[in-house]
Design a protein that fits this description.
Pfam families: Lar_N (PF09861), LarA_C (PF21113). This protein is 34% helix and 25% strand. With 424 residues, the chain is of the alpha/beta class. The chain has a 6-stranded parallel β-sheet. Strands 6-5-4-9-12-13 form a 6-stranded mixed β-sheet, sandwiched between helices.
């Protein structure tokens, strides 16, 4: 009887599946990639050999000030390793430069001080100038470009006014931008709510090219590239981590080309062939990505790719931070069915995109074709049920409920890290 370990919050839970029901575990075989180098050496090597760019040390020379964009509390970027290396190399080349670290919260809530300490360590939090982006604070935003497609690029003033803008990030598959990292540090990272909503419009989300692991003809990605160019993102350090959150590769240099190189690596590493099943169990890879329902839609999208129409998706995610967005919650809680919301959102223009509409749209799409059971003992069941999902406290309970719906012979596929794979 197969037993599969699933990341949940900061621990793991186990699921036992009868042999007659077991279909597959979708987990890349190459995900543990031995390099023979320490994590620090991998990062240093990438910075020593930037892709289509001068070295970082050359870029900072002669500059009075600069900004380093870093991801927020929802991204497992190992900044305790990357940021000290960046700061040391920058100050070794230019000891007088003024450095600000800008936290790319995008449309998320503000990162707390404790979350900053968890991310960077207390020394950096206590000694560095850290600015937490707020996409809704109009006083801290500035318009830097307008595009013919009818949207304005508004970004954080701190980034717009600096002499040199760089970013650190993590490359993983992303459920509608194709991949995280690179240009996402700008849009949505440090953009205004208005700009983010324009990029995440219903038309783009509905595009067949706005899918996990795809950049080609992806309208969401293409807008993000334009934003990064206009914001003058001069240099990136993007890392790739394994399932244990250890750095296994790093890509530094030009925002577009270094990122593309990293995406190719991640795609090769993360692709799994779908094994269609009646029931698919997925996760969001545990903490910090499974803190809320909003983020957990990512793991559901992976399950959607291999779950038959009419099947059951069991999503194992702590969601200890609740729904993750009031608008996201309200969008679905205020309709009778997911299909009603899909019909409603299809008529919303780019300029009229509302907060968290995109995430609601993605979840509604999944719910319109699948039953979703959310497994958690850290979230109010009423929140889950109000947005058209079922709730259980354990995976075993969820499996039994799924068998009741589909029959005792239903086939089960398991995706231990739905946020980290590309199912094709």
């Amino acid at each position: 009887m197969p037993i599969v370990k699933l990341p949940y919050n900061k621990k793991t839970v186990e699921v036992e599946i009868d042999n007659k029901n077991f279909a597959a575990v979708l987990e890349p075989e190459q995900f543990n990639c031995e390099t023979g180098l320490t994590e620090e050496k991998i990062v240093e090597k990438s910075l020593d050999n930037p892709i289509d760019s001068p070295k970082l040390e050359k870029l900072v020379k002669g500059k009075n000030n600069m900004v380093i964009i870093s991801s927020d509390h929802t991204r497992p970027l190992p900044s305790k390793i990357t940021m000290p290396i960046l700061l040391r190399r920058i100050r070794r080349a230019n000891s007088d430069i003024d450095i600000k670290i800008l936290i790319a919260t995008g449309f998320h809530r503000a990162t707390t001080r404790q979350e900053l300490i968890d991310k960077f360590g207390s020394e950096i939090v206590e000694n560095e100038n850290i600015v937490v982006h707020d996409s809704r604070d109009r006083n801290k935003l500035v318009k830097i470009a307008s595009f013919s497609s009818g949207w304005d690029l508004e970004i954080n003033k701190v980034a717009a006014e600096t002499e040199l803008l760089i970013a650190e990030g993590l490359i993983k598959s992303h459920f509608f931008a194709g991949f995280s990292g690179g240009r996402k540090s700008i849009l949505p990272g440090i953009s205004s709510a208005k700009t983010i909503m324009s990029n995440h419009c219903a038309e783009f989300i509905a595009s067949p090219y706005a899918r996990t692991g795809n950049l080609r003809n992806n309208p969401v990605h293409e807008d993000m590239l334009r934003a990064a160019e206009k914001a003058k993102l001069a240099f990136i350090l993007n890392v790739v981590t394994d399932k244990n959150r250890k750095i296994i590769n790093a890509f530094a240099g030009d925002c577009k080309l270094a990122h593309e190189r990293g995406c190719k690596f991640v795609k090769k590493l993360s692709e799994v062939k779908k094994v269609e099943a009646d029931i698919v169990i997925s996760t969001n890879g545990g903490y910090p990505l499974d803190q809320n329902i909003y983020q957990s839609v990512k793991g559901m999208v992976a399950a959607e790719a291999t779950c038959r129409k009419g099947g059951v998706i069991i999503m194992v995610a702590a969601c200890n931070d609740g729904h993750g967005g009031q608008a996201f919650y309200d969008n679905l809680a205020n309709v009778k069915t997911p299909e009603e919301y899909l019909k409603k959102v299809s008529n919303v223009s780019r300029r009229d995109t509302t907060p968290d509409q995109w995430e609601s749209q993605m979840l509604a799409r999944i719910l319109s074709e699948h039953t979703v059971i959310l497994v958690t003992d850290m979230c109010d069941p009423e929140i889950i049920e109000n947005i058209h999902m079922l709730h259980t406290y354990t995976v075993k309970e969820a499996l039994n409920k799924a068998y009741d719906i589909l029959g005792k012979d239903a086939k089960v596929t398991v995706i231990p890290d739905g946020a980290g794979v590309i199912v094709g």
